[in-house]
Amino acid sequence: MRVFARVVEAGSFTRAAASLQMPKATVTKLVQGLEARLRVQLLERTTRRVTVTADGASYYEHTGRLLGELSDIEATLSHAQKSPRGRLRVDLATATACMLIIPALPRFQALHPDIELDLEISDRLSGPIGENVDCVIRGAAYDLAHVSRRLGAVRWVTCATPGYLERHGAPQHPRDLEDSEQNLVAYVPPATARPMVLHFERDGETLAIKGRCRLSINDSQAHLVAALAGLGVVQVLECMARPHLERGELVPVLTDWQRPPHPIYIMYPQNRHLSAKLQVFVDWVADLFAPHS
User: Fold this and answer.
1) Does the predicted model carry a pTM greater than 0.85?
2) Please, which pLDDT band fits residue 80 given cuts at 50, 70 and 90?
3) Which of 27, 58, 154, 238 has the fewest C-beta atoms under 10 angstroms from its C-beta?
4) Where does a domain end: 77, 104, 126?
C-alpha cells in the first residue's frame, strides 16, 4: 500500500523508487502483486508517465487514511512524537526559501537533528501529490483538496538603484511609471506566464499599473538581480530587497503608496497523515512567520 501510494504521489515508478530508496524493479513487482491480489488495475502505464485509474484513485483515497492511522500507531510505539525522524519533502517558492526558510534552518536542525529535509525550490506552482512532496509553502491556497494554514503575509517594496533614479528621475506617482522616461522590469509568474501588474493603494484608492516594460523575467531572484543592475523599477517582496536597501544599493520609491501584503500558506493533502515530523515542521514555520502575521 505504501509503495503504491508513493507511485501515485510521484507520478512515476522511477521517482517513487528513488524517494523510497528501493530498486525500481522491486517497486514495480510490489505494485503488480497488489493489483493481482485485488484483481483490478490500479495504474495505467505508458512509456512516458503513470496515471491512476478510477479504481486506483478510490483505493489511494481509502488506504491513505488507513496508512495515516498506522503511522500514528507506529509513531506512538517508537516514541517518534518525542523525537521525530525521517525525510520531509517540502515544495516552496524561491523567495520564501532563500530569504526566510533557509537562513533559519540551523535552528530547526538543532531542534530536530533526526529530520532530513528535501527542499524543492522553484517559482513554478506544483501540487503536493503530483510532485511527491509532503507539504507546500506558497503565496496562495491554490487547491481546495489540501489543508491550508495561513502563516502570515510579507510586505512589498517598489524600488530601483540610485544610478537608475539619477538617469530617469524618481517617480512621484504610480502613473509616472507609465511614462516613456521610466522602465519597469516585469516579473512573469511561471503559473500565469503573464507579466505581473504593479498594484498600489493609498487612502482607499487602488491602482494597477502595467508601465513601460523592456525586460520580463520569470525567476524572482533574477528579477531582483536585474533591478540591482540598474535596468529599471521593480516591485519585489521586501524580505528579498531588505539587505540591498540597507546597503543603499536599492532605494524605495512611491513609499506613500503600498501594495497589499503577500499572504503565505502552508499546505498538505487532506488524506496525508500529519506525521510527527510534519507537525513539528509546520509549527516551526508558523513560529518563523509569526512576525509577519
Assistant:
1) no
2) low
3) 58
4) 77
